[in-house]
């Protein structure tokens, strides 16, 4: 089969490799689309790849081609989304159902060959079925959608309250939609790009606030009667928005950091004192899994994509690029600000 193989930093090649074989308990998937995740970029353009040669890709959709001995829940022809985490199921965290925290996990598309290829083999439970009403493009967005839902639920989320989403990227807009689906009274999305804020409103946000403008806190006071927000979700991993979360939180609020930071972060005494004085709860979120594996994050994503309540906008996708030109896709990320949205690699293109 053909695959995009990473051989070294800045060296990803479209070439022929051995097609994987199905073994008991596993399924062979004919890949349609794979999204380039932010974590893939340093593995190709930087020094983060675990080993060489390697085949990355973990946000994928496709069709079951063949099933191994003992597989009962899938059959050839099923449309599926890939679940990348392969937990050990034996460590203390796995035994508690905290699969994201597994100490001995594998991961499809980083620690074992992934979906930047024509075919990929995964364990039976690592393929989630979706109906014909759900496009393969949406199927490639299951993983970010589940990350957003897992983050929403990392706090004791209840409907009927106010929610702030910091960051209008894919994860932020998915988190906003989950907050609305589960009954938020009011959801505000914060970003510095007006086009992202307009998209947020099209997808259901009650308002979009440009946090790059000097008077944006006046708008916050109007929206919340000066209280701040009951729930605050930081999805950008940006120093500015991480500090802003502390500022926007109401007394006794619940705050979750979903975004992954890339720089060291420090707080002034005044900034940190927000947490003391407001007595808000702060936690983080990692990946998208719960018991029974892979978790209802995945089932609910399939359901709400099917009903249309979890909305998908074409602007989520920046470009679709054939697998044969995967090197060109990663070159695009070297130009700051060029890629606005997800690049999907088309394994059949």
Intertermini distance? 14 Å
Which bin fits the share of residues in helices? 25-40%
The number of helices is 11
Q: Based on DSSP secondary structure assignment, what is the total number of beta strands?
A: 17
Shape: globular
Order of secondary-structure elements: EEEHEEEHEEEHHEHEHEHEHEHEHEHE
Which percent range describes the beta-strand content?
25-35%
Main beta-sheet strand count, sense and barrel state: 7 strands, mixed
Question: Which structural class do you get from the secondary structure elements?
Answer: alpha/beta
Residue stretches low in confidence (pLDDT < 50, at least 5 long) are: none
The overall average pLDDT, rounded, is 97
Radius of gyration: 20 Å
């Amino acid at each position: 089969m053909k695959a995009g193989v990473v051989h070294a930093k800045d060296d990803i090649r479209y070439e022929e490799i051995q097609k994987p074989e199905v073994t008991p308990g596993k399924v062979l998937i004919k890949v349609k689309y794979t999204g380039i995740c932010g974590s893939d970029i340093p593995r190709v353009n930087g020094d983060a790849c675990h080993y060489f040669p390697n085949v990355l890709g973990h946000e994928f959709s496709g069709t079951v081609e063949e099933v191994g001995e003992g597989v009962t829940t899938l059959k050839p022809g099923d449309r599926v989304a890939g679940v990348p985490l392969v937990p050990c199921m034996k460590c203390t965290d796995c035994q508690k159902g905290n699969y994201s925290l597994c100490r001995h996990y594998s991961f499809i598309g980083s620690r074992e060959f992934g979906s930047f290829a024509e075919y990929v083999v995964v364990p039976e439970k690592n393929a989630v079925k979706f109906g014909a009403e759900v496009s393969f493009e949406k199927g490639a967005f299951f993983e970010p959608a589940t990350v957003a839902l897992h983050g929403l639920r990392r706090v004791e989320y209840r409907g009927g309250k106010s929610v702030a989403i910091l960051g209008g990227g894919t994860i932020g807009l998915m988190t906003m939609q989950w907050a609305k689906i589960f009954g938020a009274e009011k959801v505000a999305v914060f970003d510095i790009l007006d086009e992202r804020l307009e998209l947020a409103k099209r997808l259901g946000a009650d308002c979009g606030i440009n946090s790059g403008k000097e008077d944006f806190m006046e708008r916050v006071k109007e929206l919340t009667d000066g209280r701040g927000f009951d729930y605050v979700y930081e999805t950008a991993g940006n120093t500015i928005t991480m500090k802003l979360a502390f500022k926007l939180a109401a007394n006794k609020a619940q705050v979750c950091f979903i975004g992954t930071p890339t720089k060291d972060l420090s707080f002034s005494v005044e900034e940190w004192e927000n947490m003391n004085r407001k007595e808000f709860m702060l936690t983080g979120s990692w990946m998208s899994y719960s018991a029974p594996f892979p978790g209802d994050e995945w089932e609910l994503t399939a359901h709400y994509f099917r009903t249309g309540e979890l909305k998908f906008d074409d602007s989520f996708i920046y470009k679709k690029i054939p697998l044969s030109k995967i090197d060109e896709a990663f070159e695009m990320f070297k130009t700051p600000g060029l890629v606005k949205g997800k690049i999907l690699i088309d394994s059949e293109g």
